[in-house]
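Today's session is about reading a structure prediction critically. Students often jump straight to the picture, but the first step is always the sequence itself: look for stretches that repeat, for charged clusters, for runs of hydrophobic residues. Only then move on to the predicted structure, which in these notes is written as discrete structure tokens rather than atom positions. Here is the chain we will use throughout the hour.
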Amino acid sequence: MSLVVTQQADNVLLFIFQTSSILDEVSVNQVGKELDHVLDNSEFENVVIDLGRVEMMTSSMVGRLVAFKKRCDTEQLKLKLCCLSKEVHKLFKITRLDKVFDIAKTREKATKSFS
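Below is the predicted structure for this chain, in token form.
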């Protein structure tokens, strides 16, 4: 089962997480592979990751998102996160990653911000 669904709209590649928790290395590795595989085969310059369903994630998953951001930066892609739950947003604030990632409240705001 895929943990991430991919959609394409308005020149934006959208990753929608389908699970409420990412708490084991198998899931972290699967998500990482899914993100990388789609990005490897895409021509999009704008990427949104919708974390709306995610309530909990391990530090390994946070690290995987940081690595994905670095890849996007290296490839000059624009990355935005959106729809963070209270718990995930708190985690990003505590770790100061809310200063590293561009975070939008809604998917619509994230996708429209590229225009």
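Discussion point for the tutorial: The first helix runs from residue 25 to 40.
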